[in-house]
Each structure stands twice: as structure tokens, then as C-alpha cells.
Amino acid sequence: MNMTIISYMQSVKLVCSMKHCTTRTMPNPLALEASFVINRPMFLLLAALAAFAPLAIDLYLPSFAAISEELQAPAGRVQQTVTVFLAGFAMGMLFYGPLSDRFGRRRMIFAGTTLFVLASVACMLAQSIEQLLAFRLIQAFGGGAAAVISRAVIRDLFGETDSARVMAMIAMVTSLAPMIAPLLGAYILELGSWRYEFLALALFGAVCTIAAYLLLPETLSQTRSQTSISLAFRGYWTVFQHRDARLLIISGGAHFAAMFAYITGTPFVYIEFFDLSEKTYAVLFGSNILTLIGFGYASTRLVKHTGTTPLIKTGSMLGLLGALLVLSSAWNAGTDHWNLGLMVIGFLMCVGSLGFVAPNTTAQLLGKHPKNAGAASALYGCAQFGLGGLASWAVSVVHDDTALPMAAAVVAFVALACWASLRLKR
Predict the structure, then answer these.
(1) What is the pLDDT of residues 272-316, one digit of tens each?
(2) 237-426 has CATH 1.10.490.10 classification
(3) For the purposes of burial, counting CB atoms within 10 Å of the CB of 281, is it exposed (0-12), middle (13-18) or buried (19 or more)?
(4) Which end of the chain is more exposed for a tag (fewer CB within 10 A), N or C?
């Protein structure tokens, strides 16, 4: 996989070389849409910025019991630190997205990642669950800048097809975070305290801030920047009033939400309902991540020939087929190997096909709105985390000791995504 990523980064070689670009500004934006070379350090920086959410969510999951014990908080209150983070992350994206269309990408990256670092240190020093919840909200608000602006930067540098290829490859890298972060968090916890995990997040944010200063050019040109803050935030309406933009946001956001339903429901379904071991669950979870990476890699190869819309539609239909297999398994309510295999195959298709949908919906959405790329990226990200939070909440609220609530939520959200993608014009 590392050789695949490196070979791809080396293959995105067009006309404009990084050595001709300063770290402060970029050449003419029209030239950038036609060509740009993204070097390996900058690629890894953009991938790191996109990984803020999965790292900040998954790194400290092994420490829930330790946090609950030290802060004398119920388990439910500790779990709320994830919900608060999702809410703050969505708010941060909505705030920083349009501001980056007005003031530039670099300034907002620095502002957001610096806030993330300071809030991470505050989380490390929290003395009560209330303080931890408050600081997690602030941490997420800062981290939202990294995710939303990294997508806008890619759109500034590339046209629609190449944006889809780069976003798919970055998604391949960031998909490793949910696999690595919990394991890394467990090792950090063995050092003596859950607080070290938030120190690790602070150091990660600091490294990204420094790397952005050294490596990230200002990709927003004056011809594309908004002339006022009010116009920048008005970009939300400019984007949302377009039919295809709404469909792309729904398609990408709803499919992402189905994955959140899977993440919320499968620990119980696999471990309690099917009576699998934690290690077997980890293997099944990892297999879905690898499938997601595989679909993402296929997307980087196919989009040059098919364009973005056919891949979005194909991914949505494959996802719906997989979701129906999951529902069939849940409806049968059996715990035999056949039913388990049916569910596993269904989730491989449902989760993996997001590798077709996510990068291509993002690239097409931002490609349609280059002057409001930050606002468009923010709307897309907010839909992902907003619908994802709704899906997670729905699965937990209607939990009935069977797999049906999870399966129903997965089918509902993937069906919504499929409906939206099939209505795209091109």
C-alpha cells in the first residue's frame, strides 16, 4: 500500500512544478486547474489535516474507563465527549469554510490548528468531566478548520477529475487512522495516564501547524477570494440553491452516515449477538477499512476514464445492495455462519463503496463552486458529521438486542444516498 501511495504521488506530474511556487502564493489559478505537481511532503500534510477527526475521536477510545474512574463520571457522560466533538467539528467547518474564501487558506489553517493544540492541552489538564466536555467542544471547533480547508486547497490546485484522484488517495491514507489510532491510544495509556493521549493530539496539531507554515502555499487567488465576510457566508446560499449541489451533499453525507450506523452498531452485533471475540471483531472492522481503501484506489484509476458521476452512481448502488444484504441477515435473526457471512459481505460492499462516493461527490461539488470552495466544503462536511451523528443516535436509541435497528438505519441512509446520486444530471 505504501508503494501504491508513493507511485501515485509521483504520477501526478503535470506542468507547474512546486519549485516555481513560493510558500506564500501560487501562480495564476487558471493554470493551476490545468496542471500542478503535488510533492510528497505536501501530500502527506494534506492527508494529516484530513485525519484530524478520526485521530481525535479514535485515539482516546481505549481510555473511556480510565477517564470515567479518574473524573468520577458515569460512562454515558464520557461517551458524550464523542458527541460533543462531532457537534463542535461540524460548527468549526461551517465557521472556517467561508472565512477561508475571504481571508485565504493559510490564515484559517493556522487559526484552527492553533486552537486545536491549545484545547488539546486544556483537555489534558481537565479536572472534571464538565471541563473535558467544554474543552473537547473547543478542540473540535479548531480541528474543523483542518478538514474543511484541506479539501478547499485541493480544489484550488486541481480541476475536477484530478481533485477526485487526489481526494481518493488522501482518503486511502486517512482510512488507516481508525485502524491505527485505537491501538496507538492503548499503548499510550500503558504509559500511565489517559492525559498523555491528549498531549499526543496537541503534539500532532503542533507538527501540522509548523508543517503548514513551511509547506502550504496560499492557494486562494485574489480573483477567487470573496470581497467581504458577508459575501463569504452568503456563499452557503449560493451553493445550496443549486440542485446538483444539494444532491451531491445528500449523497456523500448520507452514505457517510450509514458508515456511522455501522460503527455504532457492530460492536454489539458482532460481539454480543454473534458471540465473536474482540479480536475477531477487530479483524472484521479492519477488513472493511481495507475494502474502503481498495475502492478508493480503484477510483483514482477509473475516474480519468469515466468521470465522477458514473462512479458516484455505481458506488451508491453497490452500497444499497450491500445494505440490503445486511438487512436480510438481520431480518433472519440467526446467529449461524451463513447469516454472519451475509452481514460481513454486505458491510464490505456498503462501507467499501464509500471509496467511490466520497472523493467524487466532494470533487464535483467543489468543482462546481470554485469561488465558494470553502463554503461548499463546509456544507459537505457538516452534512457528513451531522447525518453521521443522527445515524449513531438513532441506532443507540432504538437498540433492542438485535441487529435490526442498525440494519434499518444503514438501509435508510444508503437508500437516501442512492436516490440523490441517481438524480444527478451527469
Answers:
(1) 788 888 678 778 888 888 899 899 889 988 988 888 899 999 999
(2) no
(3) middle
(4) C
Domain boundaries, the chain: 40-225, 237-426
Q: pLDDT digit string (tens) for 156-175? A: 888 777 888 888 888 888 87
pLDDT for 173-212, tens place per residue?
A: 887 887 788 888 888 888 989 999 999 999 999 999 999 9
- Report phi then psi at 74, rounded to 5: -60, 155
Give the C-alpha separation, 288 to 202, whole Å: 29
Q: Extract the C-alpha cell encoding 297.
A: 484506489
Q: For residue 3, give every residue at least 6 positions away whose Cβ sits within 8 Å of its Cβ, in sequence order, or none.
A: none
Q: What are phi and psi of 223, to 5 degrees?
A: -70, -20
Residue 230 C-beta-side C-alpha neighbours within 13 Å: 0
- Cell output for 318: 453497490
> The C-alpha cell of 327 is what?
438487512
C-alpha cell of 282? Answer: 477487530
Pair 129, 138: CB distance under 8 Å: no
Q: What is the pLDDT of residue 33?
A: 41
382-396 residue pLDDT tens:
888 888 888 888 887
Distance CA 257, CA 387 (A): 5
Q: How far is CA 266 from the centre of its chain?
A: 19
d(CA 350, CA 345): 9
Alpha carbon of 28 to those of 33, 109, 255: distances in Å? 9, 22, 36
CB-CB contact of 94 with 85 (8 Å): no
Q: Which of 17-26, 63-72, 278-287, 364-373 has the lowest mean pLDDT?
A: 17-26
The answer for residues whose C-beta is within 8 angstroms of residue 235's C-beta and 6 or more apart is 98, 101, 226, 369, 371, 372, 374, 375, 376
Which amino acid is located at 389 in the chain? G
Average pLDDT over residues 325-330: 92
The C-alpha cell that represents 207 in the structure block: 507538527
Name the band, by pLDDT with cuts 50, 70 and 90, for residue 10.
Answer: very low
Query: In Å, how far from its chain's centre is CA 24?
Result: 27
H or E segment and range at residue 383: helix 373-397
**Counting beta carbons within 10 angstroms of the beta carbon of residue 279, is it exposed (0 to 12), middle (13 to 18) or buried (19 or more)?**
exposed
Distance from CA of residue 103 to its chain's centroid? 24
Mean pLDDT along residues 341-351? 94
